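Repro:
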Amino acid sequence: MSEEWEVVKYRVIYGDTDAMGVVYYGNYMRFLECARGELMRRLGKPYREVESRGLAIPVAEVGLKYIAPARYEDELDIKIRVEKLTGASVRFAYEIERASDHSLLAKGFTRHAVIDVNKGCVVRIPADLAEVLRS
């Protein structure tokens, strides 16, 4: 799949942090979601369009390694790329860096199934969607 990263910028808000002044670990899942949504828009297939076709792309698996803390007001570079595409799933890879010094803060992946919402079952990725995910 793609070796090129798409980069999504995000500035840490106070509400992202915990009592220790660092980004709460669960908020990293929101950062990954933010990057996926932006990537899909950039590819010309926003989630809203996919959902209008009766499809959903829920997270089936996630893995994230925390390396260093992000703090309030840090600008983050959330890097994302399509790592693997199979008949009915897609796996995204992520790296989150602090923009000011390019420190790697976290890296991981999400794997998503494609679901027909009306039938309630996993389906093959439609050809047009698979094509843009491969690009």
